[in-house]
Structures are given as C-alpha cells and as structure tokens.
Amino acid sequence: MKFALKILGAAAAALTLSACSSSSPTASTPATLALQLEFVRGTLHPAAEGVRRLKPRAAQQINRIEIYVLFAADTLARATARIAPGDSIFNVGLEVTPGEERRLVVEAWSDDVEVESVLEYRGVQAGLQIAAGAEQQVTVTLFPVPIPGRRVVMIAGSGSGAPGSPRNPVPIFLISADALRGLQLDVHAHVSGNPARLGLQPRGLVKDSNLPLQNLDSNLIDTAGMPTLRIVMFDDTGRSLPPLLEPLRLFDVDFQIETGITPGTLYRLWLSDFVVRDHNNSSLEVLSVEGEFLVQ
Fold it and tell me: Is CATH 2.60.40.680 what the domain over 151-295 is classified as, yes or no?
C-alpha cells in the first residue's frame, strides 16, 4: 500500500541512512539511499472503561532502528542501528539487489533493561525503484504502533480548498492490531493558535464501500460553540474490521469553507471523544494524530 500523508507537527527527528545496493556481492557500482525519518506525535485518549494508559515513548527516547528492504514476500536486506537516545544521525550499510517495486520498512524501538523491548514506531514506503549508481532521497513517516488488546491509532489526514467551496474531503486513517466491531469519534477544526476562530466546518462523510463495517452515520453537534461532526461506524450484520498494521483509509470527512476566509489560513484538524470496541466488545484506548487544512 502506497501511503503519503502530510501531518501537522510530524517531524520530531531527522535520521540519515546510507545503504549500498548492488546486483551481486562483487558489483562495483553502489547505490545510496538517503533516508529521512519523520516521527509522528500523537495524543493519548483512555479507553471508555478507564483502562490504565501506557504512554508511548517520544522519538527522542528511541535507541534502536531496524531497516528492512523487501520484494513481495522476500526480505532482500535487513539492518539494525543502535543509537544513543536523542541522537539524530546514523549510518548503516545494506547490500540490496536493484530493481523496481521494492518495499522499505523502518521500525523504531525503545529498549529498557528492566522490561521487554517494545516496538514504538513503524513506517512503510512502497513502490521504490532502487538503481545502482544513483542517490535516492526517501522519506518515511513513522507512526506509533497499535498495541494488541489495548490501543489503536487514528490519524486525521490533510486537505485544502478555496474560500466558499462546500465539499473538501479529508481522509481519516486507522491502524489497529485488533479486529474491531465498531467505533465512534468526533472531528473538529480551528485555526492553529486561535481556537475561537471558525470558518471551516465538517459537513458530512464519504465512506469506502469495500470495508466490512458498512454502517457509517454522522451528525453535527455543537461543542463549546465549535462545529463538530460525530461519527459512528459499525456493521449491523456483526462483521468486524480486520487488523490493520499499516494505515487504512476508513472514510473522508467533507469540510465547508466559509466565504471571506483569507487564503493561506491554516486550520488544525483533530479527533476526540473516542469509543472503540474490539471483536470481544472490549474498549480500547486511542492514540490520535492531528491533521491540517490549508485555505488556498
């Protein structure tokens, strides 16, 4: 799955990777991958039953990076980099067969000598073409990983539109290690640094007809004077949404821009008031990631 998403405040650390690629162990023309990693920050929301929250570690606490290069189901190369927490530069050599449709997977860990190591972040870049003798710049966005039986990750995407336009879609994504039977959330928007300034309102939804959860409803509510869209997603036949370890587009939220809004105005898009149920009807906590909307 190819996934490109711009998120407000996504970059928390910049890491570079030098990876030598060759068609054989004796090839003399290496390729170089310059890898930029962007760690996405999120806000943790407790489960409906008040389950104790396990706070995710910040990117600055990461001390282990795992890099995989894959073609279909085959792992062409794998490397591990150990870094001091807070460092932002590392170099790793990888021998990779050049070719098209390579898939790059990056995982970031926080090791703790007192507890089992925990995978904190994961990012995927698909459809890469690795060619010998050329340097390639690759950006990988790393999202916090879901925790089975405890946490899902929900992501507000990005959008843009002109003043006065009534339908401007913004995608909402999900990452989950559990099968889900239903979810509820609120979607809001305001100008960054000025919550009282309105002008961008969520109006409705466009669903993906291929998803197992076919019941998708929404209604506008007013939260402290701020237009809010409350969304409920479920399936009345009892089907569940399968585990999704890479971001899956659940639906689009349509936003209306009022006339008179100045082009260049940037809105924050955020998600709140979650209720997420797994296939056993247990409540899960949510790590939410903000999005942004630019008036053009």
Answer: yes
Please give the structure tokens belonging to residue 202. Answer: 């969520």
Q: In angstroms, what CA-CA distances link 217 with 182, 200, 207, 223, 231?
A: 12, 20, 10, 18, 6
Q: What predicted TM-score, i.e. pTM, was given to this entire model?
A: 0.78
Sheet containing strand 74-82, strands side by side: 32-39, 135-144, 118-130, 99-110, 64-71, 74-82
CA pair distance 252, 202, nearest whole angstrom: 10
pLDDT of residue 14: 37
Q: Strands 180-191 and 226-234: what pairing?
A: antiparallel
Domain boundaries, the chain: 32-144, 151-295
pLDDT tens column, 118-150: 678 899 988 888 887 777 788 888 888 898 998
Could you tell me whether strands 158-161 and 291-295 are parallel, antiparallel, or unpaired per DSSP bridges?
parallel
According to CATH, the topology of domain 32-144 is Immunoglobulin-like (2.60.40)
- Rounded distance, CA 40 to CA 15, Å? 14
User: How many residues does this entry show for the chain?
Assistant: 296
- Report CA dihedral (57, 61, 63, 69) to the nearest 10 degrees: 50
Give burial (CB, 10 Å; 0-12/13-18/19+) of 208.
middle
User: In the structure encoding, which two tokens stand for residue 27, read together?
Assistant: 């090839």
Q: Sort 160 into a burial class: Cβ within 10 Å, 0-12 / 13-18 / 19+.
A: middle
Q: CATH topology of 32-144 equal to that of 151-295?
A: yes
Structure tokens at 238: 């009892």
What would the two tokens of residue 213 be? 């959860």
Quote the CA–CA distance of 276 and 288 in Å, as a whole number: 12
